[in-house]
TrEMBL record:
The keyword Signal applies. This is Peptidase M28. Residues 115-328 form the Peptidase M28 domain. Residues 1-27 form the signal peptide. PANTHER family: GLUTAMINYL-PEPTIDE CYCLOTRANSFERASE, GLUTAMINYL-PEPTIDE CYCLOTRANSFERASE-RELATED. Keywords: Acyltransferase, Signal, Transferase. GO terms for molecular function: glutaminyl-peptide cyclotransferase activity; zinc ion binding.
Amino acid sequence: MIKQPFVNMYKILSFAAGVALCMSACKQPTKTNQPEESGKPTATVQNVNVPVFQTDSAYAYTAKQVSFGPRIPNTPAQQKCADWLIAQLKPLADTVYIQRTTVKGPKKVPLPCINIIASFNPAATQRVLLLSHWDTRPHADQDAFDRNKQLDGADDGASGVGVLIEVARQLHADKPKAGVDILLTDVEDYGISEEENSYCLGTQYWAKNPHVRGYKANYGILLDMVGGRASQFFMEGGSQQYAYGPMKMFWDVANRLGYSDYFRYENIGTSITDDHVYVNTMANIPTFDIIALQQNGNFVPHWHTANDNMTVIDKRTLQVVGQTILEVLYRQPFEY
């Protein structure tokens, strides 16, 4: 993983046109991310009933996580939130797997890590992996006033999990033909830019120790910061390299549903070190990242600040992301 030139942002790496992505691993140019000339996706769309994503539920799930306090590893809030997440998913999924381990954080600090995996339709060989981290960064290092202050992580962490719990509720009520696995990862946001691979520790552990031996999925969808007001989601560089087909399908579905203000085709020349990097390179599952960015490639202003609280969460954004996921899972999960 490259840490330069991150400009004090662990997830973003801006690159000039023609420069390889991710050093030697990314020597081929990325595909263009413009829509088809007709403006319509070419995939076969199945005529099936798609559940309606319940935005109020996703918002409530997001707020509940925040109510525990910052979900920092090795704090009471971590265990309380983990217990709650498990309690929500067990009645919904066919099987829930819980990975409890200890990972080494920056400066080799031992950190308790709790990954939670909810599996739906486990007999299906064709599968989609949905994932999001649920922990909170231990300090607001991008805050303009107090960089030692803790933050709620309402968007960065809780929003993606809130969407996925509501998706799980819909999967339980009306199972699709595809197999679906929801992976909630821990200890994603504890790292420091000075130490390579110090972020996404829960995902790294899962990639080396999957919940099912030999686990494979057709592709994965990572949700990270998917609840902010007026969010825009651009096609991230690493996602284009590893998972362009399913990502393009997802963007086409979102635009077909009328969400073009959110899911943008413009190439802003940005690659992000996030959980999907390790799913792509260690688990070998093509995975793309849905994450809010600004047009200039920077993160949204509340990223890693004390302003990342419930005031930035917008129900419309949650609905746009959640309904697109359901549309893909029920209507055309593998048509890309």
